[in-house]
Amino acid sequence: MKPILFITQQLPEQAVADLHDVYEVRMWPEEERNAPREKLLEEAKEAKALWTMLGDEIDRELFESATNLKIVVNLAVGYNNIDLDAAREHKVIVTNTPDVLTETTADLTFALMLATARRLIEAEKTVRNGEWQAWTPMGLTGQNVHGTTVGIVGMGRIGEAVCMRAQGFNMEVIYHNRTRKSLEEAQYAELDDLLKRSDFVVILAPLTEQTKGMIGERELSLMKETAILINCGRGGIVDEQALYEALKNKSIWGAGLDVFEQEPLPLDHPLQTLDNLTVTPHIGSATVQTRYAMMQLNKEALQACANSKPVKNRVC
Predict the structure, then answer these.
(1) When you count CB atoms within 10 A of the terminal residue's CB, does the N or C end of the chain come out lower?
(2) Is 125 in the same domain as 184?
(3) Is 112 part of any domain?
């Protein structure tokens, strides 16, 4: 009998076709939502392999009940949804999808900067709602992007790719990172200094104990009134209630978010009431080419595990 692979959300058949040779593939049949918790735990008890999404909670309870489990492949570069300590204790391999989504996520980050600064969502609604009556001198005026200062919090691969794009807009780039880097295009700054100087504060750090809640009421109060906050890192890094107050009171000019503390963002969340906020549904890596590249990395890890070969892109 073939070992069981459970996939927690429907994926394109071409992404999983080769896996039928080495696994009994079971896949949750819905593309718009993950398998319910009860179903995930039920399938994990029999599975040798799990192919998971960022919204799946792969915790100690799951590892303790999944006695046959050998590998979890996560369709994301992040893995804060997985209890790595529990995975190590139960000798389960965990992999992610590094590198292949760098440029695509940097594109989305810059798109959010542009959309927020130039109020593109508001402008589009004005046209579609029939509210565009005439050209006016100060109608829908936004903020410049070119020639401004961008402060990047988390200068990893994606941060460096955003830095490269900023050069084309003649932007000054400063950054804050846990370790300093030798970069000709960017200058290191302490976090408080970065917040005070930047026209755009771009969050690209991973969610860790050190970064959780990093941007709160005090940090937001240091930003310019004309500044824009962009978060394409992880939702828990920014205190959303503090951000709501800052945007509502216009102590900062605007924000663009692709990630949130709770995903999907509830319709009744206070952030949903703000016009000076641009939101996208965690689509940083969402291009056809990049998502297939991510799936390919996961698939190769699953095949290697099934064939008792070394597994690449391990995080534990």
Answers:
(1) N
(2) yes
(3) yes
Instruction: Determine which one of 20, 217, 263, 314 is catalytic.
Output: 263
C-alpha span between 249 and 243 (Å, rounded)? 10
Tens digits of pLDDT across the chain (316 residues)? 999 999 999 999 999 999 999 999 999 999 889 999 999 999 999 999 999 999 999 999 999 999 999 999 999 999 999 999 999 999 999 999 999 999 999 999 999 999 999 999 999 999 999 999 999 999 999 999 999 999 999 999 999 999 999 999 999 999 999 999 999 999 999 999 999 999 999 999 999 999 999 999 999 999 999 999 999 999 999 999 999 999 999 999 999 999 999 999 999 999 999 999 999 999 999 999 999 999 999 999 999 999 999 999 999 9
Catalytic status, residue 176: no
Query: Active site residue: 234, 245, 269, 314, which one?
Result: 234
Q: Which two tokens stand for residue 170?
A: 């003649």
Residue 1 CA: distances (Å) to CA of 6, 21, 46, 262: 15, 11, 13, 40
Catalytic, out of 119, 176, 197, 282: 282
Same domain for 67 and 203? no
Q: Is 178 a catalytic residue?
A: no
Q: Is 90 one of the catalytic residues?
A: no
Cα(280)–Cα(277) distance, integer angstroms: 10
Are 126 and 153 in the same domain? yes
CATH no. for residue 239? 3.40.50.720
Tell me the whole-structure pTM to 2 decimals.
0.94
